[in-house]
Amino acid sequence: MSTVRGARERARIEVTAAIKDEARRMLAAEGAAKLSLRAVARELGMVSSALYRYFPSRDELLTALIVDAYDSVGAAAEQADARALDSGAAPRQRWAAVCEAVRAWALDHPHEYSLIYGSPVPGYSAPMDTVGPASRVGNIFIGIVRAAHAGRGLALPPLPAVLRPEAVRMTEDFAEGLPPEVTAALVAAWAQLVGLISFELFGQFNRVVEDRAAFFTHAAGQLAHGVGLPAV
């Protein structure tokens, strides 16, 4: 009986993977807004009712793709940080390594990047299932800054008095132990990092920035400076 269950589970994993692969192909060809379970089933030679046993709705399939994308970029960032740590890198170098890994992942997975950091999908609201995977990259940056804060310390960025209550709230929510000034700078740096990558990926740098790799490396260094990381 266990052999039968194992075969069924393997078959389910294979079919699930095939469904998601076809959905990703459709994302690349037509965008998330046009993703259709019926179209996926048709391309795979399945009847719609069979596909619904794996993903009961388009939104559940989208959620699975979004979680996979967040986990993929999160894993790339975590691996880059682990390699930097193993080499004895300082927090500033760890920061740079993670930024470069996120950019490289985006360039290799432009449609998945667009799904998670591009325009919202009409009619879709991301469930709580996506929050943990979506936090993986941000948590790495928080960890890097915490390490610097506990070590050589941070150069506190300026923080307007009007923003302090919000910065304190954010610190209590997801960056406990950091100075509120640094938490606010971290959130801004994350937004700017996504903006840098999006400008490159979606063509806004065309006829503006030619050496995009060098430009990105410099900009990532400025973001590290902005959150107070020491130069070495």
From TrEMBL:
Q: Could you tell me which species this protein originates from?
A: Streptomyces vinaceus
For this UniProt record, the keywords arranged alphabetically read as follows: DNA-binding, Transcription, Transcription regulation
InterPro entries found in the cross-reference section = Homeodomain-like_sf (IPR009057), HTH-type_TetR-like_transc_reg (IPR050109), HTH_TetR (IPR001647), MT1864/Rv1816-like_C (IPR025996), Tet_transcr_reg_TetR-rel_C_sf (IPR036271)
GO molecular function terms noted in the UniProt entry:
DNA-binding transcription factor activity; transcription cis-regulatory region binding
PROSITE patterns this protein is in? Answer: HTH_TETR_2 (PS50977)
Q: Which residues bind DNA?
A: 36-55
Q: Which domain of life is it from?
A: Bacteria
What Pfam families does the record tag this protein with? TetR_C_33, TetR_N
Residues forming coiled coils: none
Q: Looking at the keywords, is Ion transport present?
A: no
Listed Gene3D superfamilies = Tetracycline Repressor, domain 2 (1.10.357.10)
Domain HTH tetR-type stretches: 13-73
**Can you say what this protein is called?**
TetR/AcrR family transcriptional regulator
